[in-house]
Every structure is written in C-alpha cells, then in structure tokens.
Amino acid sequence: KQWYQRRVRGMLGSQTLTECEGAFGALQKICEDSSDQLENMPGADGKKVLDTFIPLFMQYFQHPSSKIRSCALACINQFIINLPPALLDNLGNFVQGLTTLAEDHDPEVRKNVCRALVMLLEVRVDHLAPHMNDIIEYMLIRTQDPDENVALEACEFWLAYAELPTEVLSMLSPYLKRLVPILIQGMKYSEIDIILLKGDVDDDEMVPDNEQDIKPRFHKSRTHQQSYTNGEKQEGTESDDDDVDDEAFADWNLRKCSAAALDALSNVYKEEILEPLLPILMETLSSAEWEVKELGILALGAVAEGCMNGIIPHLPQLVPFLITALSDKKTLVRSITCWTLSRYAHWIVNQPPEDRYLANLVEELLKRMLDTNKRVQEAACSAFATLEEEACTELLPYLGYILKTFLEAFKKYQHKSLLILYDAIGTLADSVGYHLNSPEYIEILMPPLIAKWNSLKDDDKDLFPLLECLSSVATALQTGFVPYAEPVYQRCLLLIERTLTSAVLAATQPEQYEKPDKDFMIVALDLLSGMAEGMEGNEEFQILVKNSNILPLLFQCMQDDMSEVRQSSFALLGDLTKACFQYVKPYINELIPVLVNNLQPCYISVCNNATWAIGEISIQLGPEMKPFAGVILNQLIVIINRENTPKTLLENTAI
After folding, report:
1. What is the per-residue pLDDT across 204-261, written as a single tens digit (0 to 9) for each?
2. How many beta carbons lie within 10 A of that of residue 86, not counting itself?
3. Is the pLDDT of residue 408 over 50?
C-alpha cells in the first residue's frame, strides 16, 4: 500500500500533464468507490493516508489544468459527509480554497464547488455561517449558471437550506425576493425538455408503452390499527404512502429541483415566500405563452402546503381557472394542472356544495382520465386518487359516473396508465367503503378486474398492483365479493404455497434455484386479509377456510426471515381470528409463541401487527388466554415504556 501511495504521489507530481491527469482520474474513482476504507487506511510515519492526501489535493486547486482542479476537488468532496479528522483539521483551508475556485471558467469545477458547499451546509453549517451572506450571493448567481449541471447543483443548496436550524434560517430572509424569481425561472421547460417529453404530441393513447419506462412497483404490507372514537372500537389500515406527484417529478433535473426547493422553502418561510411569489403567479398564469403559464401552475402547486393560509383568499378565483386549464390545448398544461389541483383537494372538498367546486372538479378530472394523451391520463388518474382520499363519502353522488369512467379507462389504457388506474380503484374502495356494495356498482367494477386477474400469469408482476386493488375492493364489497371469492382465495393460497416451496429449494439447493420474489406471497396474504375483513362472519368464507390449508401455510409465513412477510402474516392472522376463530383456535399453542417472538419494537410494523393480532386473539379466548399472559405482558411492558414508540403501536399495546 505504501509503495502504491508513493507511486501515485509521484505521478501527481509528474511534469507530464497526461500522466498527472490520469493519476487524478484514478484517484477520483478510488475516492468515490472506497471513501470509507480510505478514512481508516494507515499511511507513512504512523499517519493515516488522508493526512497526506487531503492537503495534497488542496495544493492542486491552483493547477493550470481545469481537469486536475476538478478532480482534486471531487476527491475531497467524497469525504465531506463523514468529515474525517484529516479534513476537519484542514476545513478552514478547504473553505478558503473553494473561494479561489468559485469563479472558475470550467463548469465542472464550478459544479464541484457548489456540491462541496451543499454538503458542508448539511454537516458543518457553523463553518459556513461567518461567510453565509457571500455564499448565498454566490449560489444565487450559480443557480442561474448557463451550464444546467452547475445550476442544478447550486439549486440543491436551497433544498438543503430549508432543513437548517432556526437560528440560521433568518439569514436567507432578505434574499427571498431575489431567490423566488430565480427558482420560478428554473422551473420553465426548455425546448429540449419539450422534445424529450413529446410535449407537442397530443394523441398517443394507441401507442403501446415502452416497458423500460415503467418503473418497478414495491408493495407495502398491511398495517393494522385499533383506536377508540366516541367510546367505540374502530379498526382500519394505516398507509405510509407519500403524495404521488405528477410525472414531471420523476427524473431529477433543474426544473424539478427548483420546484422542490420552492416547496421546501415555502414550508419554512410561509408568507415571506408568498409576498414575492404572488405578483409572479398573476403574471405567469395570465401569460399567452403556454410554457410560462405551465410554470405558473407548477409553482402554485409547489407552494400549496407551505403557503396555503395566504393563498386561500385567492382560491375562489384560482380554482375555477385551474379547472378550466384542464381543457387547455397543450398536454403539458393539462397534466401539471391535474397535479396542482390535487394539492388543493382538501380545500375544494370542504367548500359548500352550492359553490360546485367539487362537482366541477370531479367532472373535469374524469374527462381527463379519458384524455387522448397518456401523460394526461396518468396525471388525472393520480390526481383523482388524491381527491378520493380527501373527499371519501362526498363522492357518493358521483359514484356511478366514476365507475363508468373507470370502465372506459380499462378499455383504452396502455400498460402504465392501467397500473395507476388500479391504485385509483383501490383508493376509491378505501374511501367509500361499503357504499360500493351495490349490484349496480359491482356489475360495472368487477368484470374488468376479474378478466385482468384471469389473464395474468402467476409470475407476472402486474399482479402486485392488481392484488393490492382487489384487497381494498374485497374489504369494501363485503358479501358482494362472495361470487368471486373462491377462485381468488384458491389462487392466493397457490401463490403463497409456490413461494414458500421456491424459498426452501433456493435455500437447500442454491446452485440450482434462484430465490423467489416474496412480494407475490405478501400481496396474496394482504388480499386474503382484505377478504377476511370484508366477509367477516360470512358462511361461504368460513367454508373456504375450513376446507383449505391456510393456517399451516400462515404458520410458515409467520416465521419467514423477511419482515414484510411476517407483517402481512400477522395482519391476516388477526383478520382470520375475527372472521372465523373456530378454525384458528386449534393452532393457538403454536401461533402465540411466534407472535411473542415478534414483539420487537425494532421492527415497528411487524411488532404493531403482532400486538394487534394478540389483542384479537385475547378477545376471542377470554380466560383461556391466562397461560400466555405472563410472557406477553413482559414484552408489552417493555414496548409501552420505550421512548419514541409510534402512537399506533402504543395504542395497540395498551388495548
């Protein structure tokens, strides 16, 4: 190692530019890939290797070659987050070195300067605080850099700034009037963006999706919760889903970073942001140029959360404007308007019915779900799912219209839009619940879902969103799901059994068998939970349980090494306990020790569901629970006395 270090140092000092650049290029790759190892690697004379190389890298900040200057800075940047002693001891010199590179003519150097300042802001803002005014001025300029990569790196600074302690936040306030217009300008589509996004293509609904453009979906297991409202126990599921933004936020670039920064800053500075923003909004929203109008609509959506109180007085004018913009001739305007309206769904839902904001929004969003452009379809579908969460039973007057629109969407959607439609259907079922259990609605909704269910193979990953959707639908339809229960139930068991068998084969004969994708098992468990919850007490469902091997399979799943499998297993156990305890009871002596072993708060969702399942079993067993009470109570006492235990887990533990 010492020989290699001496050799590299010799090459760095070479008079041959290509040799020096090559050495730095190699060092940069090593620092990127092995920064953790380098931090602890011994060097010469009892020092660590970074004690030598950090000061050495700084010497090259003045090198005539811009490539070497850039590489030297990039090497140091790899160590900023962990801030090893070698860098911490030289931090003052490093910050001074950044000032010498700040106006470098090479955009790659300027980009690395911005990157260094962003990381230092996150880990050692105290070192930057004395220079903060100068740094802010610099970043205002760099956020408008003609090189978009530099501008993007600089824009990250404002995102990071929004996370700083309160005492530092006030330093940015005087600059907000200058910063807001810069961020707004960064949100405008470039000509290249429009070409890449096919923004001038109006009608593409018949064009099949490129499968590579469809991002993988990850299933989230069910989490059960018990709470008390007005003295009555209520059960439900908890969702950790984040807001689903318009696809404009999918691939990171200056536009998305600018919008995200405006969003983050508006949550911190509230009306301070609104003061410079409102005149810009009025100007952009009324622009005859669609690109300018579009960025105004995006900005309005970005500040919805942070500036809501200040924007509310303007919403009676803005919401009708946005609903009208859903019919704009430009597809990118229609798609971003869907997203922005979803950000104000809470306000819209809470307005008096005579104002017709909700009625008009439902009508126009459903029209956009049947748009001839796929991007608009997807944006409208996502926006409608958000509206469903906010509106819940307020949507009942429109339920028939909504379901008929979903049916038409089934007929015309390509692959990607169809996956989002599943989410909209599942969210609708969650939101309106048993109101969906009507022969008229079932006749519209179930045939296309079951047709898709029958058309998909057992190893098709499109089963994930479809089973998630069916889980919500089964819970909502209750006995209305009975005609579809047996084939769905049997296939779920088959998916679980195949996955368990494949897992055993992969463990015992790894050279011949690959590990299975356990998401198939998780979504099957969750669908069975939905059926058990919806058909609680139903005789047909009880017969299915009685005549199957669901309990032995569930016992195996409860011991799986994957926490998400155990989480869904305990949810199903609790639902089966409520739905048909007579078939669970014979297995209690085997099941309870597994539940107790999973009362470990380090796996919050697993522990939560295990606690909930124990509560349901206790209700059913009554005094027969006594043999297990001691060991269970010991674990529950530990959980309830633990600091920072989530509210849901505390509630289930207390119950």
Report:
1. 666 665 665 555 554 455 555 443 233 232 333 333 334 434 444 457 889 999 999 9
2. 21
3. yes
pTM: 0.82
Residues ≥6 apart with Cβ < 8 Å to 369: 377, 380, 381, 384, 405, 406, 409
Report CA torsion sign: 480, 484, 486, 490.
negative
Q: Give the phi and the psi of residue 422 in degrees, each rounded to 5.
A: -55, -45
* CA pair distance 495, 581, nearest whole angstrom: 24
Q: Return the residue matching tokens 């669908």.
A: 527
First to last CA, the chain: 61
Return the closest-CA partner of residue 132 out of 170, 93, 177, 79. 170
Q: In sequence order, what are the residues at sequence separation of 6 or more whose Cβ sits closer than 8 angstroms to the Cβ of residue 48?
A: 39, 40, 41, 42, 84, 85, 86
- DSSP tag of 390: H
> Model confidence over 476-533: pLDDT tens digits?
999 999 999 999 999 999 999 999 999 999 999 999 999 999 999 999 999 999 999 9
Q: How many angstroms separate the most distant Cα atoms in the chain? A: 87
Q: Could you read off the pLDDT of 10-69 as tens digits, one per residue? A: 455 555 677 677 777 777 888 877 777 777 777 666 677 788 788 888 988 888 888 889
Q: Which residue has the tokens 């889903």?
A: 241
Find all residues with CB under 8 Å of 347, minimum gap 6, and list them: 308, 312, 315, 319
CB 301 within 8 Å of CB 339: yes
CB 76 within 8 A of CB 57: yes
Of 232, 221, 228, the residue nearest 572 (C-alpha): 221
Name the 3-class secondary structure at 99. Answer: helix
**Residue 529 near residue 575, CB atoms below 8 Å:** yes
